[in-house]
């Protein structure tokens, strides 16, 4: 009997459904205008539900931001965020004393562990031109034994992330940015030390694929138990097996078979998330992901009592100086600049 590689096809919404070890993926794409003196939009914000602005208006959203778009300080516990910025900038501040600015291809890998507060603000650094933003935030679960690790983050700078060019038989090219895992003989940079992705046998892969028209690429077989999902988020159509798939669909594939993806007549963009599942119960409430409801209650109590270390940045939505550039300042005082 012929083996099928497609298990399910599903339309994508604002939050993209994921499978263990991943929890959810968010895709943000906003066409921000030139910035003002505060690095917010230099246009009227009248008519917006500031603080809860998730509706596209004039090409952008303010999210939870009231002056600068983005996400003022908020808590996490029990999982990791992998933030992949394709265009634009993100300003990071957290309750460990760390801060930074990253963007235009950079990836921040943050382990919330036992709990931290952090911000994700989108500073509009250009006053004389538009400030488009596009990013993915991928939530990656932690196993029970790692949920109370110390919070930390590390930067995967754009210049260091491996890029693979795969040329199909017709001479058309697919370009892969290897955020996590191994593919086509190349290895990614190291994830955070507590991550499920740290152990090679967990086969965690995060890939961004750009395909020329009529290009093809093959995802190799890994294991019978692998969860593999392809998010086709921009383009016209792709073909897997004998099925044609339109953009803005998630395609769940078997991990036990080589799978060839053939692009249509337009440039296409894909996000691939794959990995061995964490075979543990999940209890989730908002920003806390634990194994039991009792642990969720404890997370709320700990947050109310300790604020996960407290907030020393003076305001809930701090941003760096306009000309700060790309940098990371870690909780131990170490500084990286790009």
UniProtKB/TrEMBL annotation:
Instruction: Give every Pirin N-terminal domain span.
Output: 51-140
Q: Which InterPro entries match?
A: Pirin (IPR012093), Pirin_C_dom (IPR008778), Pirin_N_dom (IPR003829), RmlC-like_jellyroll (IPR014710), RmlC_Cupin_sf (IPR011051)
Species name for this entry? Answer: Niallia endozanthoxylica
The record ties this protein, via PANTHER family, to: PIRIN, PIRIN-RELATED
Q: Which residues form the Pirin C-terminal domain?
A: 209-309
Instruction: Tell me which family the UniProt entry assigns to this protein.
Output: Belongs to the pirin family.
Source domain of life: Bacteria
Specify one Pfam family.
Pirin_C
Name the UniProt record assigns to this protein: Pirin family protein
């Amino acid at each position: 009997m012929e083996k099928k590689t497609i298990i399910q096809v599903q339309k994508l919404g604002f939050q993209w459904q994921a499978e263990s070890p991943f929890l959810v993926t968010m895709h943000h794409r906003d066409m921000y205008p030139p910035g003002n003196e505060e690095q917010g939009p230099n246009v009227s914000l009248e008519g917006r539900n500031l603080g809860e602005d998730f509706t596209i208006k004039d090409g952008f959203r303010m999210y939870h931001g009231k002056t600068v778009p983005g996400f003022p300080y908020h808590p996490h516990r029990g999982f990791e965020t992998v933030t992949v910025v394709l265009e634009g900038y993100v300003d990071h501040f957290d309750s460990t004393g760390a801060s930074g600015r990253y963007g235009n291809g950079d990836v921040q890998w943050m382990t919330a562990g036992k709990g931290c507060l952090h911000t994700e603000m989108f500073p509009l650094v250009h006053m004389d031109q538009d400030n488009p933003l596009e990013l993915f935030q991928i939530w990656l679960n932690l196993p029970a034994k790692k949920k109370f690790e110390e919070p930390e983050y590390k930067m995967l700078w754009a210049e260091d992330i491996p890029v693979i060019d795969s040329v199909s038989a017709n001479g058309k090219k697919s370009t892969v940015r290897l955020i996590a895992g191994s593919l086509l003989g190349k290895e990614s940079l190291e994830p955070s030390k507590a991550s499920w992705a740290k152990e090679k046998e967990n086969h965690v892969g995060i890939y961004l694929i750009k395909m020329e028209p009529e290009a093809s690429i093959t995802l190799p077989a890994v294991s019978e138990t692998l969860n593999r999902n392809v998010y086709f988020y921009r383009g016209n159509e792709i073909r897997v097996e004998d099925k044609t798939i339109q953009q803005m669909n998630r395609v769940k594939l078997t991990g036990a078979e080589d799978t060839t993806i053939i692009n249509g007549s337009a440039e296409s963009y894909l996000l691939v998330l794959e990995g061995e599942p964490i075979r543990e119960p999940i209890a989730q409430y908002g920003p806390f992901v634990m194994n039991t409801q009792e642990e969720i209650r404890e997370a709320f109590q700990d947050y109310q009592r300790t604020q996960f270390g407290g907030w020393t940045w003076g305001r809930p939505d701090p941003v760096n100086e306009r000309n700060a550039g790309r940098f990371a300042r870690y909780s131990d005082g170490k500084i990286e600049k790009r």
